[in-house]
Amino acid sequence: MDEQALQAKRDLYAHLNTTARAYRVAARDAVQAAERGESVDPAVLDSAKEAWADQYSQAQMALTKDVLEVASKLNRALGVGYSIVKQLPSSPDLNEAYERAKSWFNGPLSDGVYLLRVTPRHDLGVEVEPHFEQTRMQMLTTLDGARRIPERLLAAERAGAATPR
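Below the sequence we write its predicted structure tokens.
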């Protein structure tokens, strides 16, 4: 691979990582502000979501298979995080919703963002761990399984909110 193509790949990976981290932080910060009773500017989160979506759509055309798999699973996980934030105000149990949100952003979603940082480093040869493929697959499986839990809870809350009492 020539130096220009390698630099373009590095830049793509760096931008993807930056926007994923910014999106996670914006969502986590919105949860923390809401929990403190502060007003939350939805434009900050929406802007981070749009930046990620733009970067992700560009990256889909150029990522290697392994990095694309990580980015795709992370995209779904970030979408769950967005839903968690947006659905907070209508949650029947705010304390439980805040704990669920903090757990999601500091646990599985944080791990997913980490995986998006380390997988491209392996692809570029910057970091080489002999058993990384096994670790990557295990982390992806965990992220995907963890994502389904808040998805189900959010769907149940939406269904409960839609049912007249």
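The chain has a mean pLDDT of 93.
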